[in-house]
Amino acid sequence: MLGFWYKEFPQYPKDHKDFWRTRLIAHSLLITTCYFLVLTLLNLFYFKSYDIALIDALGLTISLGIYTWFNKTANVNAAAWAVTLMVVSLIMMFVVSVGGHAHSLFWATLIPPFSFFLVGRNWGSLFSAVAFAICAYLVYLQQQQTVTIGLGSLFNLIEVSLAHILIFRFYEKTRFSAYTRLSIRNLEIQHLAETDKLTGLYNRQKFDFELSQLIAKNDVFKTPHCLLICDIDHFKNINDTYGLTNPQNVTGTAIYDLM
Length: 259
Prior knowledge:
The chain is an all-alpha fold. The protein contains seven helices and no strands.
C-alpha cells in the first residue's frame, strides 16, 4: 500500500549490508512526516499552541526535505545522520520548551531506537545519554510540584506508544528477514560442503559423517550393520576414456574414484 514511499535503489539490493538501512530511513521519515503533520494540526487548531505547532511544522518540512534529498542522492550515511539529528533535536526542543510537563518526557524514549538503529551503538549511546540527562534535570526542577494529567498528557502517551510499536515492528521485520536469509545461506553452504561440485554426489566428508553417525547409533541400540567397499580394477582407463579429461568426450561426466 505504501510502496510509492519506499524507493528501490539498484545499488542497494537485498543482499547488500545497507539495504535495510535504506528501508529504515524511509520508514523513519514516513513516521516523522505523518506525526509532524498530525501534531502541527492538533497544536494549531485544537490546543492553540502556536509555538509548539511551529516546531512541528519545522519537523514536517525537514522530514520531507530529507526524504526528497535521499531519494535523489541515495546517500545512506548522510541521510541516517540527518534523520537522527532531526529527531533528537526536535524532540528535545519540544520537551525543554514545555518544561517536561504533560508527560512530554515520554518522547525522549524514541531517541534510543532511532539513534541506535541509524548511527550505531556508540553515537546512539551518546545521544541517548545526553537526552536522558536533560530529562532527569527537568524532573529535578519539578520536585514538589503537583502533576496535572490533562488531555495533552494522554495524547503524548498514545502518540509515543504508537511510534514505538511502528519502529519495533519494522525492526522485527528486518531481524526476521535477515534470519531467514542466513538460514537459507547456511543450507547452501552445508550442501556445498557435503557434495562434489561437478557430479552433485556426496563427498568423502559426508561419507565420514554418516559413517560416524551409523557407528554411534550401533553403539547405543546394538543394531548390526554391514559396510561394503568395492574397488574397480583399471579405473583410470575408464576415467580417461569417458571422463572430461578425454578431448573426444567433452560432453561426458568426469568419474572420480573416491575409494
